[in-house]
Specification:
The structure is a homodimer. Chain A is α/β, with parallel strands linked by helices. The first copy, chain A, is 49% helix and 13% strand.
């Protein structure tokens, strides 16, 4: 085991009906209530949240319209609103996009400069508004970690921040809130959570990590099994619940604690696809990940085989990669660039964009040429 | 998945040499420095802690002499010292006994009545001194949970408390601190951690828990494998490290979140053996657990078989129970009452004592007769 610090103070309140308890947990007098396109108004979540806030005398100001691949311009607007309305906390009702927006706003609220400074390492986050979450889409684990990813539309950069003050105080995980999540978003969430787990699993620097390996294999197996069940029966409570908790545990620090250095190359490349073409994060990963595995197969063949045995019942690295592609196919996630209408001729442009994030993340082996070679395997 | 609340704000600082950083993490001006028999003076841990406290200008008053199966009279004394010296935090350097004592003192410090009131549910813990830990013995997971167990010598009761304010703020987990832990204590810790994991695994009320099952199986496998390595080579860093983190994760709330109601019948019976005969906690469990499995075999045979397959490579419940006994034997942990010189004739007396804890914990099926029957299987 390699040295690590593990700290995760987010309180998880898990179960059917817990949405109606959000007001009880919210330690604030007036919150900025962030949400997305308004699906929460159609499925009743909005009403349950508002009722609970009123019951517990929490005032709120609404700001809706957060989009997938959330953008910086919206963050600016929301910071303005938060300041004008003098809120003392943020309530994010949604998935990763809404929660990540909440985190950027929470950090920007107290900062006099441009909030983008935090993303390009020009400034450090030292203080943030307290964040509360009602999760409606399982994928990013933002509900139980301290990171956020925002796209700067003008620079075409999808960059991240991370700070202890960005851990949500309380996150409500009510599996029934995800009953109406459409198939393609379930698939995207499934891919995202799996790749979160496997970035560390396949790139870690420390060899002997039986605890983390077992946890990752357990979670990937559970995610694959429950995704299939959800796609068959969207109201399978147990499947939704196990999927939800797995996705949260997939990036809350648990499975990477002690594995040494690790990298996020698939996210690095996927973020460029999303920044340039606005394709869903999960879809970008289902395209990039098999290609990345193929490019690295000779270096990680033993590990691919042992993972394949534990999760897919396969015995060698090639079959394991095929099993991933078959699984992604089965759930309707794209595995080639052309499936999302990206032309092979664009690879150079994508690689160019990806390199800036590779540099920010210190991924030195990922030159423009290497990235292009990997993307060609997805063509 | 069953509804749950998961909250664990303890910060874990893991790695070789981290003991020397304790002063940096300690947010207090004067702490009560608790430790055991003084082994920390012989192996150098004491010097490293004191040096770090001095470096960071943290004053301290020492109180040593915490014993295994820590007692209430010592807690009283330590509360007196803490008040007299006006400390503002507690530093526990030791294993579960020292940490549990720290928790009882932390809670008692602010309470005007008898601290034992908390143990017999006459009063609720609402406030406690902040607790910091340097772990020297892996077993109880007290370094990352909110519970504590203390023995009242006059009433012969080994009872527990639990409160959010009792989570340690920071726990240093430095595997090299356990290099000098003697074989029998390694074995006891191994048994304790395994039974922590399996009490929930075999008594849970909710059926479909693939995440928690996989985590438990991973941790038990890791504990068994690393215990054997440690007994062969006490300075095997990786074995000590994996054992240490496994034991912490074994009772920090992770593996029981979502499994519904569960019981601690083996701890209930084990606590009586320790309260009456002052035998080590782990030894009490290695005696009681196989007997409990035998008593319940017909009810949990499927689950015993699937656990046996995952962990021991066995295919039926009987072989799984035998595998436990063989493992306990191999590491020198007792599996029969006579091995710790407890006479079969005492079973009635032990059952009588155990029933009071069964009542406190709401274990209604554990009448005196049932407990006696189980203990007879350990005779």
């Amino acid at each position: 085991m390699k040295d690590f610090v593990f700290y995760n103070p987010t309180q998880i309140v898990f179960g059917e009906g817990k949405t109606s308890e959000i007001g009880k947990y919210l330690q604030g007098k007036k919150c900025l209530f962030l949400y997305g396109s308004g699906s929460i108004k159609r499925n009743g979540i909005y009403d349950r949240v508002v009722e609970s806030l009123k019951k517990h005398d929490v005032k709120f100001v609404e700001k809706s319209g957060v989009k997938p691949n959330p953008v910086l311009s919206f963050v600016y607007e929301a910071i303005d609103t938060a300041r004008k309305e003098q809120v003392d906390c943020i309530l994010a009702v949604g998935g990763g996009s809404v929660i990540d927006t909440a985190k950027a706003v929470a950090a920007g609220f107290y900062y006099n400069g441009d909030v983008w400074d935090f993303f390009v390492d020009k400034a450090k986050i030292t203080k943030a508004l307290p964040i509360y979450v009602v999760l409606t889409l399982s994928a990013t684990a933002s509900e139980m970690n301290s990171g956020a990813v925002i796209t700067n539309e003008s620079t075409k950069q999808k960059f991240n921040i991370q700070a202890v003050s960005l851990f949500p105080k309380v996150s409500i995980l009510d599996p029934t809130n995800t009953y109406t999540v459409p198939h393609n978003q379930v698939a995207n969430g499934s891919v995202d959570a799996i790749v979160h787990l496997l970035e560390g699993y396949f790139t870690k620097s420390y060899p002997n990590t039986p605890i983390q390996d077992g946890f990752v294999e357990t979670l990937v197996k559970t995610i694959i099994a429950t995704t299939k069940k959800i796609l068959e029966n969207p109201k399978d409570y147990d499947a939704r619940a196990n999927f939800m908790w797995s996705a949260t545990l997939a990036l809350n620090g648990l499975t990477t604690a002690g594995i040494g250095n690790y990298e996020f190359p698939n996210h690095m490349m996927g973020h460029s696809l999303s920044a340039l073409y606005d394709i869903a994060h999960g879809a970008s990963l289902s395209i990039v990940f098999p290609a990345w595995l193929k490019y690295n197969e000779s270096n990680i063949s033993k590990r691919l085989a042992s993972f394949g045995k534990a999760v897919f019942g396969k015995t060698n690295s090639k079959d394991t990669i095929t099993a991933f592609e078959e699984y992604f196919n089965e759930i309707g996630a794209p595995i080639r660039l052309k499936e999302v209408n990206i032309d092979k001729a664009d690879i150079d442009k994508i690689a160019e964009n990806a390199v800036s994030l590779a540099t920010k993340w210190g991924l030195k082996t990922y030159t423009k040429e290497v990235i292009a070679k990997i993307l060609e395997l997805a063509a």
